Amino acid sequence: MDDFFAILRIVERKCDDFGVPRIDIDDGIALYSLLYVLATEKNNVVVIDAGAGVGYSTLWLLKALEDACAEGVLYAIERDRTRFLELEKTLGMLKASCVKVYSINDDAIEFVERKFDFETLNFIFIDIDKNKYFDMFIAAKNKLAKGGLMAFHNAYMVKNVVEKILNEAHKINWFATIIPTDEGILLLRKR
């Protein structure tokens, strides 16, 4: 991952060329930090990048996992076929040695519902259609392991959805906050 910043710049241009929105660098740094700390506490991690686009956020997650030399799996899920094909090219530029990385062309909510058992996920980054954030929360909440993190991008854009998720998270006694990046990341931690 020595070429991280060079690859990051290539993928930034790819996002611009394809008109694919991406997280800002402050969001990337926040995700990296959260996942790095989590990954150093676990022997084996299962991570999801839901709405991976062409792989910009996936790069940040993979960098954290590789720097922590965490064993485990990273699933980069993208529903749009054109974006998915570019995601595969992005992942082809990387050399992961600690973690296995899979690109998945599917609906993220459906994939989570089908693929994972009770409390098997450690970290989920969600950047899918904003109107489906609550549906993802419902689909993933029982799949998230104790101490696991769920992070939703663009928290400031969808305040009504964020409030709905926060209300449900508080009812089940989860930790919850909004990381004050430019676009906001709603962060939940399962107790």
Classify the beta-strand content into a percent band.
15-25%
| H/E element sequence | HHEHEHEHEHEHEE
Major β-sheet, in short? 7 strands, mixed
Across the major sheet, the strand order is 3-2-1-4-5-7-6
Secondary structural class: alpha/beta
Question: Whole-Å distance between the termini?
Answer: 33 Å
Count of strand segments: 7
Rg over CA atoms: 15 Å
Give the overall silhouette.
Answer: globular
Number of helices: 7
Task: Give the overall average pLDDT.
Answer: 96
Parts with pLDDT < 50 across at least 5 consecutive residues: none
Oligomer type: single chain
Task: Tell me roughly what share of residues is in helical segments.
Answer: 40-55%
Characterise the protein shown here.
Helix content is 45%, strand content 24%. It is α/β, with parallel strands linked by helices. A seven-stranded mixed sheet has the order 3-2-1-4-5-7-6, sandwiched between helices. Strand 1, helix 3 and strand 2 form a beta-alpha-beta unit. The radius of gyration is 15 Å and the shape is globular.
